Amino acid sequence: MMTGIGLYLLAFIAQLMAVGFSIYLLLRTQSYRKTFACLSIAYTLMLGRRVTPLFDFLNDGNLNLLDAALAVVISSLILLGTLYIKRLLNDLENTNLTLAQINKTDSLTGALSRPETFSRTLLEIERSFRTKHPLAFLMIDIDHFKLINDAHGHWVGDTVLLNLTKCCQAELRAIDIFGRVGGEEFLVVLPDTDQVHAFEVAERLRKHIAKEAIANVAGAEIHISISIGIAVFDPEQKHDEFAANILRQYYQGCDQAMYQAKTAGRNQCALSNGL
What is the model's pTM? Predict the structure, then answer.
C-alpha cells in the first residue's frame, strides 16, 4: 500500500511541477498565451485525478498499483513535454533575437542597416520636435569608389567600406546614428547639433578619412577621400508635422548637398540650401 501511495505522491509532484512550468510559460510569452492557458487549465484539472485515488484509499482502503504506476508515467511524460516546450521557446526567442540583430545591422560593415537607420532617425525627429533642438543629417559618399573595385577587386572594396565604418564610428558619439544606406553611401544623424557644429563634425570625419590608410594591398596603402552633404533640421522653423516627410525632405537635402560637394571637386563638405 505504501508503494502505491508513494507512486501517487510522485505523480502529484510531477503534475504540480508541470502546472508551475505551464503557468510560467503563460506569463512569459505573448505569442502563445492561449496555448499555455489551455495547458495550464488542463494540467491543473488533472491534479484532481492524482489526488482522488488517495481519498478513495482513505475511505475504502483499496489502492490500484497499476493505476498508480500509470499515473507516475503519465505525469512524468507531461512534465518532460512541458520542459521540452520551455526549451524550444527559449531557442525560438534566441533565434528571433539573433535575426532581429541581423536585420538591424549591415552584414558587411556592422553599421546600422538602411531600415534601422530610418527607424531610429524617425524617433530622433520626433524627439527634436519635443525638445526644440536641431537635428543634423550628413550624407557620406566615397569618392571614386568604383575605381577601387575595378583596380583591386571587390574584396578590397569591402575592406574599404568596413574600415570607413570603423573610422567614422570612432569619431562619432554614442547617441549619433551611423547607417549604410547605399553601396558606398552612409547617413549620419547628429542629435542636438546645429549647422555650425554639423559642419565641424563633417570636416573632422573628412580629414580623418583622408589621412588614414583605409586598406593595404600587397604592402601598398590605399587612401580614399569622401564627400559629405549636410542638411540641418531646425524644429523652431515652420515644417511639415509628419516625421516621415521630414526624413524624406532632409535625406534628399543632404544627398543633393553631397552631389554638390562632388561637383565642386570632391573631398569636401557642402551645406544644403533652401530647407
Answer: 0.70
